[in-house]
Structures are given as C-alpha cells and as structure tokens.
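In the laboratory, one determines a bound structure by crystallizing the protein with its ligand and collecting diffraction data. In a computational setting the workflow is compressed into a single prediction: the sequence and the ligand go in, and a structural description comes out. We illustrate the idea with pyridoxal-5'-phosphate.
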Amino acid sequence: MDYMKTSATTQTSVPSIRTPLPGPRARALIEADERFTSPSYTRVYPLAVKRGEGAVIEDLDGNLFLDFTAGIAVCATGHCHPRVVAAVREQAGKLLHMSGTDFYYEPQAELARKLAEIFPAASVPDAQSVRVASPPGSASRRVFFTNSGAEAVEAAFKLARWNTKRKRIIAFYGAFHGRTMGALSLTASKTGQRRGFGPFVPEVTHIDYPDPYRTPDGADPLATLDHLERQLFARAFPPEEVAAVFVEPIQGEGGYIVPPPEFHRRLKSLCEKHGILYVADEVQTGMGRTGKMFALEHWGVEPDILCLAKGIASGLPLGAIVARGDIMDWPPGSHASTFGGNPLSCVAAIETIRLIEEELMANSAAIGDHLLSELRALAGRHAIIGDVRGKGLMIGVELVRDRETKERATTERNDVVQRCFRKGLLLLGCGENSIRLCPPLVIDRAQADTAIRILDEALSELAAAAA
Ligand code: PLP
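The predicted complex, in structure-token form:
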C-alpha cells in the first residue's frame, strides 16, 4: 500500500530484531504491567508494543515485527491507517460522546445506513458480487450498536428471544462467541474459558461443527444437521421452542475451520423450515477478512441477524448487530448501551468500510490465495502440517504428529509460535493445535513471502530439534 512506502518503519527491512526478546524496555514494562493487571490475560509471548504502522509493529526496544495477528483479527486497514487516523482526529475535535441511544449524531446515522446497505443478501454462492449499492430491502434493515463482539452476541441473543418469544438456542462445539455470561453460555471452545463460571444461561444446546479434516473417511461432516433434526428435534425438544441458531461462518477461535460448502445453506433452510432465526457471528470473519465483505457471501446465505465487531473500526471499540426491521422489532427501552456507537468508532468504521470496498477486500482475496498455495507447498516439505485451510486472509495451519492418526501437535504448535516471535513474525494459535494467520488486510506479496520463509525456518528448526 502506497502510504507505507514513506514510513520509517518500512524503509528498514522487516522483521528486524536487534535485542534479546524481551529487550530491556519491554522487560521493564512487562514487570510493571503484570504487577497490577488481571492474571486472566493470556500473553503468549513478551511483546511490548510502542507503535504500529500497516502490518509492522515496533516494540519498545526498536525491534520491528511483521504482524500476522492484526491485534486478534482487528486492524483490518493495518495499524494506524492515515485515512482512519485523520477521520478520528477530525471527529475528536468535534464530539467525543453524546450517547447515541438517547440522542442523534451524524456518524452513527451514516454508519447505520451503510451497514444496512452492505448486509449480505441471499445469492448464487461465490458470485462475483452479491451486494448491490442500494438493495431493495436495505431501508428496512436496522442496526444496534455495541462496544464489542460479546455485546453484539448478547444483543442478538436478547433480540432472538424477544422476536420469536422462544427460549432455546443452538450453538456449536468449538464456537467462540465471547465471555460475558450470555455469550459465554454459547461459547464452547475451551473448558478453561467456562470453568468455574456456571451456571450458564439455560436452554442452550451445543452440536458438532462440521470439520472436514477431522471427519473420519467415509463419514459425512454434515451428519451434525441430521443429529439436530432426527435426534434433538424428535427426542429432546421440539424445534418450535428454538429461538435461534448461532453460527460462525468459519469457526475462528475453535481452529479456523472452514465447513463444507453446503453446510450454511442446509443449516439456513433447516432454520427456515422451523421458524428459527439464523444468527451469523461474523465478528471475526466479517469486514473483508475472508476476501468478501462477509464470509456468508461465499455461500450465498442471508442471515436473520448479523453480529459484527473486531475489524469493523480498525481498532476502535465497536460492535453491531444488523437485522431486518421485522426482526429488530423491540420497543424503546428494551435494549441500549451508553457507549455503543461512539462517534470516534463510527467515523473509523465508515472510513474502514470505504477502504475495504476500494481495495482491501480484493487484496485480502489475492494475497490470501497466494498464502494458501505457498502454505500448501510448505506442507509438502513439513510432515507436521496436517491441514491448510481458509479463505482470504483468515488461514489456519493445523499441526499433527502423524498424518494418519492426526494426533494433535499442541506443544509443537506452541513452540512454532514462539520461534516465529523470536524471528520477528507475530502469530497466534487457534483451536488446540492450529496456527492462525490473520494479518492486516493491507499486507503485500513480499510480506506474505517473508512470513512463509520464517514459518518454514521455524518448522525446520523444530524438526531438527526433535531429530
Ligand atoms: N465472536 C467471535 C466469532 C469472536 O472471534 C470473538 C472474539 O474473538 C467474539 C465473538 C467476542 O468478541 P470480543 O472479544 O470483542 O467480545
């Protein structure tokens, strides 16, 4: 991206690691931080950030890292995109807060109109573009603003119960929907996230998420939908008690699992058959991350309620749910948030969406395809890579000890993430044994190739250490 060519951080080659990690300044900050912050935080490696630009992070000691985390899939437009920064600066001089639930201001109204307009419509799967500038129904779509993904899920949970007057919710094993009590009741990713926090919101039932890689040969990954229909709906509870199914189009925290192509269409038609709302949690998959504005566009499925956050405002706190007006039919006072739809976050989101539409969605698709094919080539050299999957710049690499048994290589995955950090590539894990690649959508081919080279080196070192 052009704006990065002028920057100091990108004139030097990246990564550039000049000190032992953590360096002295980072070490001092980490000590000070850990004295007072919650021990529940999970810092996987000692990165103390000074600033970010594009896909580059500079730490307190002047080390430069290539960021393939985007602050957990958030900084869609890269760190501190000048257009986003300019929009936030301008807004900061005009109005910081006035609570959009009680009063009116332009950025919130404009963003609501834009989100209603880009809401994913039902279409032919994988069509070039499934959104039109002003789809016929956009005027009837409505938006509720929150500060985070979990709050968006909470809002969707309440709206689904309100609208259907039904109580029960279906969610998936491996799902991550957030950590507030309602959202946590839907989350079933790792027991450590739930241990000690129950009882949860009642009447939530989890079913298997279809995982093509881990479905035994000859078995059908979509058997989970038959289980829902033939077992649960027939024997455990009637479908007319179910308000909604919450689903991630691609399972995120659970391992970057891409379901089989027919999954979302079959799930949606099952929902339609029983009057169940189909709630798409696109908190992680949305906003251009998968090479389309919303991941559901890969399968041409229109959700009843769409949950958004993370990449929506390039790092400023914002979440939203979007639904048709006949679904978002709750009365004044039934749900609200003091900070949701904050003016700074809204202008950041408006600029973020412009950038995604102008170039970043296409960049995500193109660089994502390049990364996928390079990673598949890497799998030819490293037997520990069991599976490479993803769409756009949401890519998972699953490590296994044995390709036949698919035994999970969890300690090896953790080791690779640490080795990459020490070489200047920032990565995160997902699931029990996968590496997630979710860089800012501004990365270029050279940066993608650098990441592949470093991952290759780390995997070779791991193999050498085991030999
Ligand atoms: N939903 C999904 C799919 C997520 O990946 C996350 C966070 O990782 C959330 C919800 C929760 O978002 P937040 O951490 O902003 O509450």
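The chain is about 35% helix and 15% strand. Keep in mind that any predicted model is a hypothesis to be tested, not a measurement.
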